[in-house]
Structures are given as C-alpha cells and as structure tokens.
# Entry
Amino acid sequence: MADVAKRLERLKQKMRETGTDLVALGPGAHMQWLLGFHPHPDERPCLLLVSRAGETFLMPILNADGTREDTDISFHCWSDDEGPETALATALSAISADGARSVVLDETMRADFALLLLGALPQPRHAFTAETVGALRMRKDEGEYSLIKMNAGIADEAMQKAFAAIKPGMAEKDVAGVIRAHFSSAGAVTQFTIVGSAGNGAFPHHQTGDRKLQDGDAVVIDIGARKQGFPSDITRMAVVGHPPEGYDQVHAIVENAVRAAMEAARPGVKAKEVDAAARKVISDAGYGEYFVHRTGHGLGIDGHEPPYITAASETVLEEGMVFSIEPGIYLPGRFGIRLEEIVILRAGGPEILSSLPRDVHVVEV
# Structure
C-alpha cells in the first residue's frame, strides 16, 4: 500500500526543486503510484491537482461516491449539465494554483483534459512529468521490490512450464496457452506471450501464431503477467532437437552482451553507457545491424517506463531503479535470440530477479 502522505511530500519537494507551480494527473499509472488507486477513466475530465500549497480533485459527480471510499483528498465536483469549467476554477483557487505559470502535465492523460486545464490558467508554461512524478517513480521502495520479485517468481514458473510442454508439432499459440494457464493458476493476469519459432523469432515483437514447432527450431519465449498491480517480464530461449547452424555462437554473443551490460550498470552511470556496453559486444562480433532495439526499459507499475536503456539516454542511473537488460540478435529468415533479465540496481551493481539460467533449453526429440 502506497504511503500517500510521504509520496505527496516527496512530490512537493520535487516541485520546489524544479520551480513547478502545479502538477496535474489524470486517471492512470502516475496517479496509481501516488495515491494507490485511480478513479474510473472515461471522457469526463477528472484531474488530481497538486500545488505546493495543497492538493484536490476535479471530480465528475458520477464518480464521487465510489472514489470517496479510497481517499480523503477534497473534491470539486461537476455534473454533466454544468460542465467542468466552474469546478476547475474553484479547485485551482482552493490550492492557490489559479495563477500557476509552471505546470506539469501527465503525458498519458487525454488531450482534452490537458487543454481544459491550460485554458483555465494565465499563460502557463507546461512540461511533462520526467523531473517530478516520473523521477520519483524510477526509484522503487521495499514494498514495490517485494511485489516485483513475487511477479518475477511467477514468470519463472511459467517459463519452466513452457519448457516442459514444448514438443515437435506443437503450435506457438499452444505453448502460449500453457504459459497463460500457469499465470492464471497463480492469480496473475497475462500481459503478453511472445512465442517466436525459427524465422518468426527474428521479429522481436512477433505475433504468436499457428506455426508448428519442428526439429531444428530456435524458439524465443518472452512473457509477462501482472499480479497485485505490478508486472513481470522475462525472455529465454529454447531449441527443439538440434540447434540451427550458428545458433550456439550467436547465443554466446548475446550472453556476453548481457554480461557486459550488467558490468556497466552502476549507480552514477548514464543509461546510454549500459546500452553502449551491450551494443559493443554485438557489433564487435559482426552482428551490430541485427541488434535492432534498445538494451532495456524500466519496470514498475507500467511494464515499460523510465529509465529507458537506450543509445541516447542521458538518464543517470541511481540505486533503487528497476529495469530490464535484454540485448538480442535477429537474423531474418533464420532465428532470433533475446535474453532478458529484470534487475534492481543496488550500490554494487544489478540484482537479477529471475532464478532461471540463461542457457538455452534443449527439447529432446
């Protein structure tokens, strides 16, 4: 359960540091992180408004009674026949934000919500949440670690179920079904099941389909589910029978890229340096053009969130951040290999959450 008062105070401190007068969040992940819930999202403007002086909701009256069960923050309600403009003006005045000039907008909120707010303020300058809520969300607390670790354990079990089930003649979608069934049995909601065999594995976001597995296939298995508000994400490799030509060499290169990124990931290092470490291993081995995505992404309430481990990211990594390390090599028409770990960045380096080895799982035929 989020410590709402502590998180609100941390946000207000960030606002003071960044000279921000007002933060406006719509129903979604940022509000979920800050308050531990968010109201039902629909087309009716609903905003959490936070100034350095206080906080309040612009709340559709239809949602007020249900939302009141989750918070004691004040509401400024509006009805369909009145419209939100008057309630918004009153809400801004109540927290001394009716003259706000520096406004942070939730980048995921509806555009009409944002325009309504900006239109109610005198010549506001706006930015998104990277230096306020986003910066705070990147450093997890112990409660978040516990839930992320729990989900990682469930994903490990689902991967093992997939390994045990794979056999020649089985369709990709049937392997995915085994994974989904385990997630469901563990009380988790499946978010994605990428099962890419042979040439399909060369598409990093392959749409799992009807192709049947056969001897000589390399199989990418990238899976994730969500339980108690947090997700999992892991990728491992399987081979049916005899590996395709060149597989072992390419797998070793990707493994070395993972290790290089792990070694580079330390507090105080820029995210782009971690990406560069993985990319150098793959490029030096002659496969640079086949590493077609970033090295990693943050993971928290959202499955993909900052920090992003990209070639251009200037984000300085800090102790407590959670992110993936997942380099890959994708050879069109042949196979793809991706190895993915979720890590918590500790003072001495990454703590890997999965207990599964990154060795290829070989299916006997």
Summary: Residues 4-138 form a domain with the Creatine Amidinohydrolase; Chain A, domain 1 fold (CATH 3.40.350.10). The radius of gyration is 23 Å. The chain has a mean pLDDT of 97. The chain has two domains: 4-138, 142-363.
